[in-house]
Amino acid sequence: MTNRAQQIRNYIEEQKADFISLLQSLVEFETPSDQPEKFTPIWELLSQQFQSLGYTVHHFEGNETAGQLLCKPTNFEPSKPSQLIVGHCDTVWDIGTLNEMPFSTEDNIVTGPGVYDMKAGLAMMIFGIKAIRNLNQKTKVQPIFLINSDEEIGSNESKECIIEQAKLAERTFVLEPSLDSIGKIKTRRKGVGDFEITIKGKPSHAGLAPEEGVSAILGLSHIVQQLFRLNDPANGVTVNVGTIEGGERSNVVAAKSKAVIDVRIPTKEDGERIKNQIYNLQPEINGIELSVTGDINRPPLEQNEPNKKLWEKTQQLGRELEMELQEGMSGGASDGNFTNLYSPTIDGLGAVGEGAHAYHEKIYIEQTLDRLALFTLLLLEPPIFD
After folding, report:
1. CA distance 4 to 47
2. Rounded-to-integer distance, Cα 196 and Cα 243, Å
3. Which of 182, 183, 201, 286 could pair with 352 as two cysteines, CB 3.0-4.6 Å apart?
C-alpha cells in the first residue's frame, strides 16, 4: 500500500465510529420515495454536513417528490473541470419498517432499512470530502454532489437535473451499492423499459350467446406467450409480464384486458429491437384490437471506451490500496444509466454488502470503509480525459 493510500485508510479507520453514527442518523430518517413530506430532516442533515465542509447547497423542490439537493464548493469555478457524484436518499421501505428491522451493528455487519441501498453511499460522500479536507489534500477536479429523492421510482423528476450536471462533468461516480457481497464495481447496467398492452374484445353473455363474444382475456393470453418468446437469457434480454388484468364478470365474455411488461436489455440495439417487436405484436384471433404504449426509459450503461478508461484508473487506484477490484453487470438500473450518455461513468462505488430491497439488507463496514478510501483516491485524481 502506498504512503498516500495508507494515510487515507488510517484516517478513515479513525473516523469509523463517526461514520457509523452519521449512517445511523441517515437510516433512521425513513424516506420512502412516495412520501416527500418525510424528507425534511434528511435534507437538513445533509445540508448541514456539506455546508460544514465548505459547500453551497441548493434544494430543488419537487412537484410530486422531495426534489434534489445540489452541492457545489463555495469557490466553484465553472471554467475549471468538475466531477459529478450521484446518489439518492429515497428507499423502498415504508414508514415504520425500523420497528421490524432496526439499525444495528454487530462485529463487521451494519443492518437497517436502506443502509445498503443507499444511505451508506451518502455517508461515503461526506466522509470522502472530510478525508481530503482534514488530510490537507486538494482536488484537481471540482466535486459536485447531486442527491435525488426519486431514484427508486424511476427518477422522472430528477432526470433533467442529473443530465444537466452530467453534461458538464469530466467524469461521474455513482455511489450506489456494489454488486453482490464480493463488492464488484458496476461497469455495466442493463437498460429498462416499461410497456403496457391493452386488448379490446367484444362482450357477450357467457351463457346465452358466448359465440357472439370475442374474449379479450383469450386474446391477451396469446400475446403473453408471444412476449415470453422474446426472452433471450443467454444474451441478457428479459421480457417479464409483471401484471395482467381483465374482464368484468364471470358471466360476461371479457371486453377488455391489460398487461404491464418490464424489459431489461444490455445494449441500446437490444432495446430498439425489443421495442420494435413489442409494438408489432399481432393478435391471433379475429375481432381483437391491440394497442401498445411505453418505451425504454433508462438506456443501458455500456462499457464504451471512456468508461473502460475510467474503470482501468479505478483498478489502478484499487491496487494502490491492495484491493483487486472486480467488475460486473447489474440487471437493475440507476441514475448512472442517464449520466453514462454524457459523462464517463463508474457505478457501484458505494457500500459493500447485500440484501438490497430485502429484509436481510446489510453492509460490511470494513469493506465499505475500504471502498470509501478508493472513492477518496478517485476524487483526488487529476483530469483523466482531454
Report:
1. 29
2. 10
3. 183
